[in-house]
Amino acid sequence: MVNIMEWEKQQQQQQQQQQLQQKREGLQSGNVNGNCAGMMCVKVMTDEQLETLRKQIAVYGVICEQLVDLHKQFVAQQDLAGARLGNMYSSDFRAYIRSGNGTPSKQKIKEITAELSQHGQISETNVYNWFQNRRARSKRKQQNVASGNAESEVETEAESIKDKKTKPEEFQSQNSGNSRTEDLCLQNPEVSSELHYLT
Amino acid sequence: MVNIMEWEKQQQQQQQQQQLQQKREGLQSGNVNGNCAGMMCVKVMTDEQLETLRKQIAVYGVICEQLVDLHKQFVAQQDLAGARLGNMYSSDFRAYIRSGNGTPSKQKIKEITAELSQHGQISETNVYNWFQNRRARSKRKQQNVASGNAESEVETEAESIKDKKTKPEEFQSQNSGNSRTEDLCLQNPEVSSELHYLT
DNA sequence: CTTTTATGAATGAAGG
DNA sequence: CCTTCATTCATAAAAG
User: Which domain of life, per UniProt (chains A, B) (predicted)?
Assistant: First the structure.
């Protein structure tokens, strides 16, 4: 297992440093054709270049998924910023993002895995799990928020969950003594509005 | 295994901060587009979009570069060793398991169910599902491992690949049996807070 | 140090 | 069989 954690920290630090450096240097962010020396401003994006950019961004699409969500939330909350951030992603990028909402499909997973594999060790299982968890959690979040609003915040919860499964509940009897029923509950009202205004 | 998912978050955070900073400082690399007003600028994208793309790519590029380098140091140690099937159920159960990996057959299921019933509530359906899932998953796992095993096989792991296949874990003491090695993860819950500065 | 939160993963079960 | 969903666990990171 080695100390992955250490590595992570290292990375974070380095990244931050990097960031700072960029910042100090004015974050040039490599101009496309920034040859605006005062005349022939050739900032023309050839189709090739454009394509390259799109491709890169598409690859990062998955990586930024959450960022987009947050941005959307922000946009929705502020209303001021408006469309500025909502539509700045390429269609490819958006495609990826959106794919997460519905059906990942094996094909997608393979694609994504392939692309991400270029940047590090990753398996299809990882991607699959990620989507799986993502869907489940976003759904549950919505559920909670919705129910919370509808129920007028009353602490009535408790039982409503019902054991639809009627599953023998496994053999709880065994551990009934120690299980501490964590009971989830992340009541994070506030931000989680999760508006789906997309753009 | 270093998951992309993990550092993805870092990137998200990084990017967010980056954008954040840029916004706060009003850092617009306007030199690229600013003085091209009267020129023949054949743009395929708006300044804003272009700017956004450049930023994203620049940030990602640098970060990824470093990440890739750092990953290389660890990739070699990434060993999946996903093949472990030791099971730790009752010997009886184990015997059954071993008897055949395919098709339990109704008879078998009945028997097994009967035996396990001595230890707790369990139905044939449970047993059936269990076999079903087990087969499917073990198969898929093999696939994944096989395909993903192109990496160098460094045996850095102490050992303990111990199996964790836990089955009727329900019966067993809810032992927390620390499973295997791996995983690392980090996230950035504070992104949201950062977001507030975005304005 | 303890509690929370976020998230990858494992697993039982339902549908098709 | 295969896919998908719901639940749960373990743990790293952050919060207090």
Answer: Eukaryota
Asked if pLDDT for residue B118 goes beyond 70, the answer is: yes
Encode pLDDT of B121-147 as tens digits: 888 888 889 888 888 888 777 776 666
Going from the C-alpha of A32 to that of each of A24, A154, B44, B57, B65, the distances in angstroms are 20, 56, 12, 11, 19
> Looking at strand C, which nucleotides approach a protein CB closer than 7 A?
4-14
The predicted-structure confidence for B169-183, as pLDDT tens digits, reads as follows 444 333 333 333 333
Residues 30-89 of B with CB under 8 A from A: 31-36, 39-45, 48-50, 52-64, 66-68, 70-71, 73-75, 77-78
| Cα A153 to Cα A142, A145, A189, B81, distances in angstroms | 15, 10, 10, 48
pTM (2 d.p.)? 0.40
**Which tokens is B16 given?**
């967010």
Residue carrying structure tokens 């398991």: B97
Residue window 121-160, chain A: list those with CB within 8 Å of chain B.
121-126, 130
SS3 A23: helix
Q: Which residue has the tokens 């630090």?
A: A13
| Amino acid sitting at position B145 | V
The token pair that represents B190 in the structure block? 């504070």
Two structure tokens written together for A173? 């009897």
Number of residues that this document lists for chain A: 199
Give yes or no for a contact between B116 and B125, defined as CB atoms under 8 angstroms apart.
no
